[in-house]
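Support request from a user on the community tier.

User writes: "When I paste my structure tokens into the form, the page sometimes reloads and wipes my input. The last time it worked, I copied everything first. Here is what I submitted, just in case something in the input itself triggers the reload:"
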């Protein structure tokens, strides 16, 4: 059985994707001169949080995931990030392919919470591979990709920010149950609030003891001449 080798040579944000998408550049090496007709590849990507250091503000942001820093010796466990499949076209010796990975800004997802807590540097990831390769000079020989094949990746925090800013510029994203959304719509309609931002600000103000003003009475910002 041929020993395939895998290495990630880079990762970038896809500027043309309909939703947030990272593109991992993957190099596949098959020693020898026998042609590889195709590779049906499965790739699991997980976060390895124990492989980097964290500042105090980052540690505070990671509290929901790993608890207090004093407990990290037992709680800083790998997190599932993504699982994708792709078919690599034929090659001989070595090839490079793009692995697109759709992402989410849902803050209920552990991986998103992790990336959002980071302020600088890179997130340590690990790509784990499996699948089937079809090769042979005169026909098809089916070879499994061993489960122990993997490739470490350093995902720059700046690339994650760039990707999210392309789709959510200057904004966050919050997922709520339908009954909560209906209550918010009713509150917004009752107080004639012009936007969801005004609605959330009014609720926050009410929680702090401020008066909720309808849109007609709300202060209006006027640009200076």
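"...and here is what came back when it finally went through:"
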């Amino acid at each position: 059985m041929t020993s395939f080798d895998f290495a990630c040579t880079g990762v970038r944000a896809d500027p043309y994707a309909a939703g947030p998408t990272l593109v991992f550049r993957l190099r596949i090496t098959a020693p020898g001169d026998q042609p590889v007709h195709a590779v049906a590849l499965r790739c699991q990507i997980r976060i390895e949080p124990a492989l980097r250091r964290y500042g105090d503000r980052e540690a505070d942001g990671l509290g929901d995931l790993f608890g207090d820093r004093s407990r990290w010796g037992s709680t800083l466990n790998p997190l599932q990030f993504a699982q994708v499949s792709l078919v690599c076209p034929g090659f001989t010796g070595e090839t490079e392919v793009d692995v697109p990975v759709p992402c989410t800004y849902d803050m209920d997802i552990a991986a998103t919470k992790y990336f959002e807590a980071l302020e600088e540097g890179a997130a340590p990831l690990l790509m784990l591979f499996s699948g089937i390769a079809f090769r042979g000079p005169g026909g098809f020989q089916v070879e499994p990709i061993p489960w122990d094949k993997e490739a470490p990746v350093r995902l720059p925090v700046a690339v994650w920010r760039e990707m999210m800013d392309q789709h959510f510029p200057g904004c966050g994203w919050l997922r709520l149950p339908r009954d909560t959304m209906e209550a918010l719509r009713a509150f917004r309609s009752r107080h004639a609030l012009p936007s969801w931002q005004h609605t959330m600000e009014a609720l926050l103000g009410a929680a702090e003891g401020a008066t909720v003003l309808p849109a007609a009475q709300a202060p209006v910002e006027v640009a200076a001449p």
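Agent notes: The reload is a front-end session timeout and is unrelated to the input. The helical segments are 56-61, 63-66, 72-75, 110-117, 157-167, 178-190, 196-207. The longest helix spans residues 178-190. Escalated to web team.
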